[in-house]
């Protein structure tokens, strides 16, 4: 079983995740490092980061079911879990249809993939599912340790907790920019919100379920939408926004810093929320 994750984690693409950064965020008190994108089935980056750290959990956010078959992923899970017990969480998901020509019947694909992980001996409690909509959130509660939603708000977290119920893991991702000037912050946050997410049907549909309009989603996103999805301000202001996820039922908030140098923001947020 995976160790307790703590209330703050970080989200980084493997190409942006050095061992030095992993060591620093572990010192700051972050409980988990979520490797974004679609890590390859060998999960070599997980080994690399676990080798360099002492106790932080490394999770995948997420292994893409369309890209990598369950069998090699399961072999990697067993290798890592055997070497680093309690420190690896296998996050899986289906990504988005625009990226995969063979994207058909996504729900059935998820069920089939989870069946294959079962057959390969990957424990339910050591895996999580990328989930946004109610049906997949329910599947994550039934077949995994819980859900890892991406590009969401505290209102989504509240709704997700109601669907998951108590005792199931809920770790939403949230982007931040350590910048108090709104225009400068939006200049950093808007491109990372718009491309590709505001052009992808699953994220657009989820945001509209939360009450955002076509106008909010147009032209790179309204200021209100960008501010909601890429928190900015002082460390205390950003921490307040992240705390809203925890108050809404998240077990951990997975923080994605958009600044060129992520360390100052990770340090500053940790000093507010983990001190």
Automatic annotation (TrEMBL):
GO molecular-function terms, A-Z: oxidoreductase activity, acting on paired donors, with incorporation or reduction of molecular oxygen
Designated name of the protein: LLM class F420-dependent oxidoreductase
One GO CC term on file: cytosol
SUPFAM superfamilies found in the cross-reference section: Bacterial luciferase-like (SSF51679)
Organism: Amycolatopsis alkalitolerans
Signal peptide start-end: none
Pfam families noted in UniProt: Bac_luciferase (PF00296)
Domain of life: Bacteria
InterPro entries associated with the record: Bact_Lucif_Oxidored, Lucif-like_OxRdatse_MSMEG_4141, Luciferase-like_dom, Luciferase-like_sf
Luciferase-like domain sequence ranges: 19-118
Gene3D superfamilies listed in its UniProt record: Luciferase-like domain (3.20.20.30)
């Amino acid at each position: 079983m995976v160790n307790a994750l703590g209330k703050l984690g970080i989200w980084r693409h493997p190409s942006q995740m050095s061992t030095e950064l992993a060591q620093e965020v572990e010192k700051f008190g972050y409980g988990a490092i979520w490797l974004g994108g679609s890590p390859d089935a060998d999960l070599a980056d997980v080994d690399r980061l676990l080798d360099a750290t002492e106790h932080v959990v490394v999770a995948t956010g997420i292994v893409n079911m369309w890209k990598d078959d369950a069998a090699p992923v399961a072999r990697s899970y067993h290798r890592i879990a055997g070497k680093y017990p309690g420190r690896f969480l296998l996050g899986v998901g289906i990504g988005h249809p625009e990226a995969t020509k063979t994207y058909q019947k996504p729900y059935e694909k998820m069920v089939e993939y989870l069946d294959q992980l079962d057959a390969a001996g990957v424990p339910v409690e050591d895996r999580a599912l990328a989930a946004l909509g109610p049906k997949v959130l329910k599947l994550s509660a039934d077949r995994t340790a819980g859900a890892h939603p991406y590009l969401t708000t505290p209102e989504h977290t509240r709704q997700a907790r109601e669907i998951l119920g108590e005792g199931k893991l809920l770790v939403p991702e949230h982007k931040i920019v350590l910048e108090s000037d709104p225009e400068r912050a939006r200049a950093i946050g808007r491109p990372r919100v718009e491309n590709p997410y505001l052009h992808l049907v699953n994220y657009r549909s989820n945001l509209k379920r939360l009450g955002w309009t076509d106008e909010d989603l147009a032209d790179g996103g309204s200021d209100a939408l960008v501010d909601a999805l890429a928190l900015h301000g002082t460390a205390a202001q950003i921490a307040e926004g992240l705390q809203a996820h925890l108050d809404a039922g998240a077990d951990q908030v997975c923080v994605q810093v958009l600044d060129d140098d992520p360390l100052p923001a990770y340090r500053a947020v940790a000093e507010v929320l983990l001190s």
